[in-house]
Amino acid sequence: MNLPDTAATPAGADRTFQVDLRGLVDLLSHHLYSSPRVYLRELLQNAVDALTARHGLEPDAPADAFGIRLYADGSVVRVEDDGVGLTEADVHTFLATIGRSSKRAEGIAEQRGDFIGQFGIGLLSCFLVADEIHVLSRSARTPDARAVEWRGRGDGSYTVRTLPASARPRPGTTVTLTPRADADEWTRPARVHALARHFGSLLRHPVTFDDGTGGAGASVNPEPAPWARTHPTPGARSRALAAYGEEVFGFTPLDTIELDLPAVGLKGIACVLPEAVPAGRRHGHRVHVKGMLLSEQAEEILPEWAFFVRCVVDAESLRPTASRESLYEDDTLAAVREALAERLRAWIARAAASDPDLLGRFLQAHHLAVKSLAVHDDEILRMLLPWLPFETTDGHATLDEFARTHRTVLVTSSVEEFRQVAAIASAAGLGVVNGGYTYDRELVHRLPEIRPEVSVADLDPATLTAHLDPVDRETELAAMAYLALARDALAVFDCDVALRTFQPASAPALLVDSREARHERTRSQLAREQEGGLWGDILGALRQEAPRAQLILNQLNPLVRAAVAIDEPELARTSAEALYGQAAMLSRRPLRPAESSLINRSFLDLLAHALRKDS
Ligand SMILES: Nc1ncnc2c1ncn2[C@@H]1O[C@H](COP(=O)(O)OP(=O)(O)OP(=O)(O)O)[C@@H](O)[C@H]1O
């Protein structure tokens, strides 16, 4: 913290920026840090970095030779470490200069890989809970170093004094805060203990907490990280990892995937979510660096498609941003993301190859996520496409099951088309998949890449009508008058009417009408209405041969057989309208206003006719 240069400065001379520390702390607390509780994370992280530096000085010291001790009794919070310590010069250079860090090499991007900190601002977070930071330190670099005391205050002033070595008999640093009354929530002993466990449970150095009520400090990290523990059997290990996942995330994982990337010193687990999540929603992962919990919301360690897992990882060399809430996007992070994605793919491949039960449960929860993934990822497509469920004319089935009974797989382009044709197509022995849902049509078309013996084609109305048998000449002639009347009645809907025989006999009529055809008709109609105007010309230029809808009546259906024999023209018209209305409703597409009123009218007309007949 540089004090403003208050001496009179001659006109025209260079001046020094002045820093309003209160403004800066306000900025950090409202925009950089998510909560005042991060003060403890920053203190712990500085202690960890100091221990790392101390081990660098004394590489032969055992791993647990140096530790961290926390103390909180309600009136002070203290973090004491056996780290490298600070000399008086260090105190001036690093503690008293905002933005200066002993952990950075040249530029801001060249952090010395061993350390978590790099920005030289973390200590300021203590001002979120206290007005003064008291540091007592003794350097481990020189055996006879004196102790040095630094007091930094929120108003930007500080004092430094050196003390005899006896003021701190061993090297290391003690940071003491006297919390403000309004920070009680974050500095109560129980809270400090909970925060220490939250941030420090995976730290590799011994960490203890003491609440001043007597007795030895309790260990904050009594056990090694869950993945570093040994278990009697692989089953016991996976149960223990699942229990840890549940404790951290609050759900029982469908499976736990162990992560281990020696190149970046990363270990951890990915917990497979037991339930589907909305596609595209990314989850935050818990990222520890050197055991220290830095972020619970890091999204960047996995690619977007991996939204079916949540991870806890501990890495040696990932670099957090200044807020610690996310990770610095560098080559290491890109490599980690790539390697973890590979690990998830391998897990899927293993389940597909040797654990059908697990695969089934996984796909039941996440088939949508997997479909979105398979569209862009050939390997996933190859492994999983046959096992993905689709809506078909045989009910919900995997493509593998479906292709066993249908060598030619037909796929519709909309849900509505599927609804229109499903019953008839399946009665005609055609295998149709509903391609109307996102990704489905695209995916089904890629099936021959994996099952070359299967062919896939789009189902167009012509394919279906080709499977409907024509009626004999005599029947056709007998129905001619009725068909002409029906065509006339339905001309307003640009709908042709034909008579065929098809199964199931219980279906009186089929309305074959694709969305594109309807779209085209609307455009043609608009063009006709707007004839002459600019808009009409544009629409006219776009006009194609408007495909007509087709109402196909089923000669096998008793009702249809009775209808074509009606000799009363009005009733014949009404019956044709009613058949059209029923077929349109069966297709489950939204009805147009003219269709709704046609259904309404034909129903009332038929009712009136029935009542007249009865009276
Ligand atoms: N416990 C400690 N032991 C030794 N040195 C420390 C300790 N705490 C802070 N320092 C010194 O003070 C400097 C500033 O600390 P501060 O926490 O503000 O930033 P940083 O850790 O370097 O970076 P960041 O802002 O990314 O945390 C550190 O670089 C380090 O030199």
Describe this entry's structure for a reader.
The strands form 5 sheets. An 8-stranded mixed beta sheet has the order 5-4-3-6-2-1-7-8, with helices on one face. A 5-stranded mixed beta sheet has the order 9-10-13-11-12. The chain is built from 20 helices and 22 strands. The protein is 40% helix and 19% strand. The chain is an alpha+beta fold and 615 residues long. The longest helix is centred in the middle third of the chain and has 24 residues, at 331-354. It is elongated and about 120 Å long. A hairpin with a 2-residue loop joins strand 11 (285-289) and strand 12. The model is unreliable at 1-6 and 107-111 (pLDDT under 50). Helix 8 (356-376) runs antiparallel to helix 9 (378-384) and helix 16 packs antiparallel against helix 17 (534-542). It has 4 domains: 21-219, Heat Shock Protein 90 (2-Layer Sandwich); 237-359, Ribosomal Protein S5, domain 2; 389-465, Rossmann fold, CATH 3.40.50.11260; 469-614, Four Helix Bundle (Hemerythrin (Met), subunit A). Bound molecules: adenosine-5'-triphosphate. InterPro entries: HATPase_C_sf, Hsp90_fam, Hsp90_N, Ribosomal_Su5_D2-typ_SF. Belongs to the heat shock protein 90 family. Residues 213-235 are annotated as: Disordered.
